[in-house]
Amino acid sequence: MQRILVAENDPFANQSFTAALTFEGFDVLSCVNGSEVIATASLRQPDIIVSAAQLPDISGFEVCRRLKSDAETRDIPLLMVSSDGQNTDEPAMALDIGAEDYMLKPVSFRVLISRIKSILRIFEGHS
What we know:
alpha/beta; Rossmann fold; five-stranded parallel sheet; globular
């Protein structure tokens, strides 16, 4: 069973992501802030991380930077999700710092799951 780390500080979104991914057959770990994401990723080595861009203590962008610069976590793919549709540079920023994909909220769970599966197929082919 593939393990997904979901990092979302909004309780409703966190619960919704977790429920949809669990229903799809994933083992879901849930975090609510950036520090927890970094610690959990290092300790539990998820197959993929779905992280909000806006987290309360450390931004999703900084989380991505730190994970991608650490030898223990650099190969864990990260899909960033954001509610900031006004910042048109955010997708490029996320991809430039190492995120594998970027989605704007509200997300379609069908599309989210398809993107997660696509990223996992690509990474499985390179491991």
